[in-house]
Specification:
Elements lengths: L1 H14 L3 H27 L1 H18 L8 E3 L11 E5 L2 E9 L7 H28 L6 E8 L3 H4 L5 E2 L2 E5 L3 H6 L7 H19 L2
Parallel strand pairs: 3-4, 4-6
Antiparallel strand pairs: 1-2, 2-3, 5-6
Helix pairs in contact: 1-2
Length: about 210
């Protein structure tokens, strides 16, 4: 595909004797080559996937700001045995471990959708268990629920209405706030404050090495 795009200005540059056309072709060839190198670096190194992931986490953070007035708090940066958990939210509806994903391309088959849902739900469930154990070791016995939050053009194929896969809710990012607000009350103020305090203590320990 990249070679085909570069072939057009290359042909103009090689075959056309008109100076202005040759200058245009040279510019197009330069830009095209730079874009090809950029894509090769981004996709080849996996950097583009990290960028998409960061967009998803930033969008989720922006959405969750709306919940502060409703007694919800966001905690990010908690390290687990393997990697970290994208986000933890603590509020009246309980403690939830969020697995955030950006899906740029819409899955083409039902099989692809199922594989993606299974992988994301499994990762979210594992992270929720780890966060629950972390809190339990800190002296707080509380249920931590997993949830997958999806963003991007392909998200509607993964998170349909009331989508739950292997017991894990899968929610589109723009619907996250309303979904959380509809949860029945699970924690009182004292328990929420205790959970938040323990998570903040964990972050402080991590920061001090």
């Amino acid at each position: 595909m990249i070679l085909a795009v570069l072939a057009v200005p290359g042909s103009l540059l090689w075959l056309n004797s008109n100076a202005s056309v040759r200058m245009f072709a040279l510019g197009a060839l330069t830009v095209g080559a730079a874009w090809a190198v950029f894509n090769a670096i981004m996709f080849g190194s996996g950097s583009i996937n990290h960028r998409f992931g960061a967009w998803g986490e930033e969008a989720t953070h922006d959405e969750l700001k709306k919940l502060r007035k409703h007694g919800w708090n966001l905690v990010q940066g908690i390290l687990l045995t393997r990697g970290d958990v994208d986000a933890i939210v603590v509020g009246p509806g309980g403690v939830l471990a969020l697995e955030v994903k950006w899906i740029n391309d819409r899955p083409r088959t039902n099989g692809q959708v199922l594989r993606i849902q299974t992988a994301y739900a499994g990762q979210a469930a594992a992270n929720a268990r780890s966060v629950g154990l972390l809190l339990k070791h800190s002296g707080v016995d509380v249920k931590v629920r997993p949830i997958v939050v999806v963003w991007g053009q392909g998200s509607s194929a993964i998170a349909t209405s009331d989508q739950i896969h292997n017991g894990v809710p899968i929610v589109q990012g723009p619907d996250l706030v309303n979904w959380l607000l509809q949860l029945p009350k699970a924690l009182d103020d004292d328990k929420r404050n205790l959970v938040r305090t323990k998570l903040d203590e964990r972050l402080a320990v991590q920061a001090n090495g």
